[in-house]
Design a protein that fits this description.
Layout lengths: L1 H7 L9 E5 L2 E5 L6 E6 L2 E13 L7 E10 L4 E11 L2 E11 L4 E10 L3 E12 L7 E6 L4 E5 L10 E12 L2 E8 L3 E5 L8 E5 L8 E3 L4 E10 L7 H11 L7 E5 L5 E2 L2 E5 L9 H8 L5 E7 L4 H15 L2 E8 L4 H14 L3 E8 L7 H11 L6 E4 L4 H6 L9 E6 L8 H6 L1 H15 L3 E6 L32 H17 L3 E6 L28 H4 L9 E3 L1 E3 L5 E7 L4 E7 L5 E7 L3 E7 L4 H4 L2 H5 L4 E4 L5 E3 L4 E6 L2
Length: 647
């Protein structure tokens, strides 16, 4: 059982998706969720996904339970029906889905639902995802009043909804080739989900300018339909048939090529962790292990309605023990000047070394001019950079710009789980982390600090009511089992690769210890839903151990298929290293190209993952020799490999 948790963060793996064809279109159907994904024409992805969701009063998605699945699948057509039960707290909603695909390339998805209880909802119904490659693509909108408009998907991340009041949307997915989506049963609109690092544009039911939440009463019925089609006459040629077979039929994938270069170096960002939110101080063993990560800073959040002085004292002590600086996040009251003077005094008393101040204020999603001005007035003489922005998502500063003339940098947090939560979506979202950094750099022209990166949301800035009460055996809502898994390690290295190469000035990840940390506490109590033994190191610990010196440099390493395998090439001042991660749930074979002839290999995979939980044992294991000119590196699902490169 523990092996399964360590591999993918779950006690069991979900059922394999079902491959379907509708004439020239091919797609995947997930029998666990009812979602269809990767609707493609040949190798061209036209839509990323289509699914239905029940979202509660705080925008939480109610977990679906699919049953009564019936399938009639032919070579180029299909019909699938099923029932879905959505139950959570006072929510009890049942819906029936019918999914049909024809050999003419038409896909129709019907949703018929009924409420079996009274509850508050923000949305019920369909969401259609267009892939991020649509950025800049031409599209034609048909509004609910029958009017039409020709426009484009936004290239830069749109702060607000680009499309409203939709009955249909057609887009050009290749030169002169269009596809159409028609919506029935509600009014739809589109948002740019890249704001939250989702790899999609989402067209959803129920416009946000309508009141929410609203009450759903027992017996209320919701009916919707989405129809997808190619908006041109495209025959199913032998070439397209072959492309479909090559992209859907199970096979041993061809080797992925990693090209290793030694030019175009740039500085490694400052990398740190957050203090553990459980509040317990680090033990000597935990400190010794964390030192191996060669961190740059430790983030401490001071909220002034608590005993912040004691937390600052603990944070200063832990930072000194780790020989690093503090990233001090100040969540200020509205009248902040006196509090800031107290902070300066406390910093002097604790002899605290500060990497930067992150300035936030109660009641503000984005650092305001007034907050930044008083912070500059009081903290400016300290000498540490004053950074503002948001403690939430990029979307907040995209919609409301902070006062740039009063700040030394811009900050925002990243989590891959705002809208959708499966493994594939989390890996798809990695590329969008670079997109938000690049957009922030263009908008603000200041150093960009990502703080923190977490698997789950730390809070809900858009909540409209109280959160649900946890049961005793439930995981807290901000904890994800993938924190302790190989999946988590591969995702973390993918995030590091993306954000480092995008040019972020600093990165802050996770916590030091605990269920949201890089290792379990030495004195952790057992938890049936998070079976990490006390004192064990999580695989993602090793993904963060990317060099012997936090002042290292990054060199080029290009993957021929970066959605499947990524590589991070680092010079740490004494040695070149190449980190490689398999981002998929299937084995990948890797070949190398570049000036290096040999390397020494250490690997985290399903065979070694239990060993990695014992840091001292794993660190003492022998490195394997590998011939980079002729050798083939086999990476099991979510494996992480570290290569030491002679120079």
């Amino acid at each position: 059982m523990l092996d399964s948790f360590l591999l993918c963060g779950a006690a069991s793996t979900p059922p394999e998706p079902i491959e379907l064809r509708a004439g020239p279109l091919h797609l995947l159907f997930e029998p666990q969720t009812g979602m269809i994904r990767r609707i493609c024409y040949g190798e061209i992805e036209i839509w990323r996904g289509l699914y239905a969701a029940v979202r509660d009063h705080n925008w939480g998605t109610v977990t679906p339970r699919l049953f009564n699945l019936k399938t009639n699948i032919k070579d180029d057509a299909f019909e699938i029906s099923f029932d879905v039960e959505c139950k959570q707290d006072d929510i009890d909603f049942l819906w029936h889905g019918v999914l049909q695909g024809t050999n003419e390339g038409l896909i129709e998805y019907q949703f018929q639902g009924v409420a079996r209880s009274n509850f508050q909802r923000n949305r019920i119904g369909f969401c259609l995802l267009h892939p991020p490659q649509c950025a800049g693509a031409f599209c034609e909108l048909e509004h609910v009043d029958g009017s039409r408009k020709t426009t484009q998907f936004p290239k830069d991340i749109a702060p607000h909804q680009p499309f409203f009041n939709l009955h249909s949307i057609s887009h050009e997915f290749a030169s002169g080739q269009w596809a159409q989506a028609i919506f029935e049963g509600d009014v739809f609109e589109t948002e740019d989900q890249r704001n939250w690092t989702d790899a999609s544009f989402k067209t959803y039911c129920t416009p946000l300018d309508l009141p929410f939440p609203i009450e759903v009463k027992t017996g209320d019925v919701v009916e919707q339909k989405v129809t997808l089609s190619l908006d041109f006459d495209m025959p199913l040629t032998d070439s397209i048939r072959q492309q479909w077979r090559s992209t859907t039929q199970p096979k041993e994938s061809k080797p992925i090529v990693i090209e290793i270069a030694s030019q175009n170096a740039f500085s490694l960002p400052a990398i740190g962790l957050c203090m553990a939110s459980h509040g317990e101080p680090l033990t000597e063993n935990e400190i010794a292990r964390l030192r191996l990560l060669n961190l740059s800073h430790l983030r401490a959040d001071l909220k002034f309605n608590t005993n912040w002085q004691a937390k600052l004292q603990q944070a200063s002590h832990e930072a000194k023990a780790l020989n690093i600086q503090l990233e001090l996040a100040l969540h200020l009251p509205r009248e902040a000047k006196d509090v800031l003077h107290e902070v300066i005094k406390a910093l002097e008393e604790n002899d605290a070394s500060i990497a930067r101040f992150l300035i936030f204020s109660q009641g503000e999603k984005v650092t305001s001019e007034a907050t930044a001005r008083v912070a500059r007035e009081v903290l400016g003489s300290h000498g540490a950079p004053i950074v503002g922005g948001t403690d939430f998502y990029f979307t907040e500063i995209n919609r409301q710009h902070p006062p740039l003339d009063l700040l030394d940098g811009i900050c925002f947090s990243i989590t891959p789980q705002v809208h959708i939560f499966d493994d594939l979506s989390l890996m798809e979202n990695l590329e969008m982390q670079a997109t938000v950094v690049e957009n922030a750099q263009r908008l603000f022209g200041l150093p960009i600090h990502i703080s923190p990166v977490t698997f789950k949301k730390r809070g809900n800035p858009d909540a409209t009511g109280a959160e649900l009460q946890m049961l005793p055996d439930e995981l807290p809502p901000d904890v994800d089992l993938r924190q302790m898994s190989l999946f988590g390690a591969a995702w973390t290295l993918g995030s590091l690769k993306t954000l480092c190469e995008a040019g972020a000035a600093s990165l802050t990840y996770y916590e030091t210890t605990g269920m949201k940390g890089v290792m379990q506490q030495e004195n952790a109590a057992s938890h049936s839903q998070f079976p990490a033994p006390p004192g064990t190191v999580f695989p993602l610990f090793y993904a963060l151990q990317i060099g012997e010196d936090s002042r290292g440099e990054i060199f080029e390493a290009k993957s021929s298929s970066p959605s499947q395998v990524i590589a991070l090439h680092i010079w740490d001042g004494a040695q070149f290293y190449l980190w490689i991660a398999n981002l998929t749930a299937i084995k990948q074979n890797v070949r190398f190209r570049g000036r290096y002839r040999k390397a020494y290999l250490s690997i985290l995979n399903s065979d070694t993952v239990l060993q990695t939980m014992n840091l001292e044992r794993f660190m003492g294991s022998e490195w394997q020799s590998i011939n980079l000119k002729t050798g083939l590196l086999s990476l099991p699902p979510y494996a992480l490999a570290r290569l030491s490169l002679p120079w």
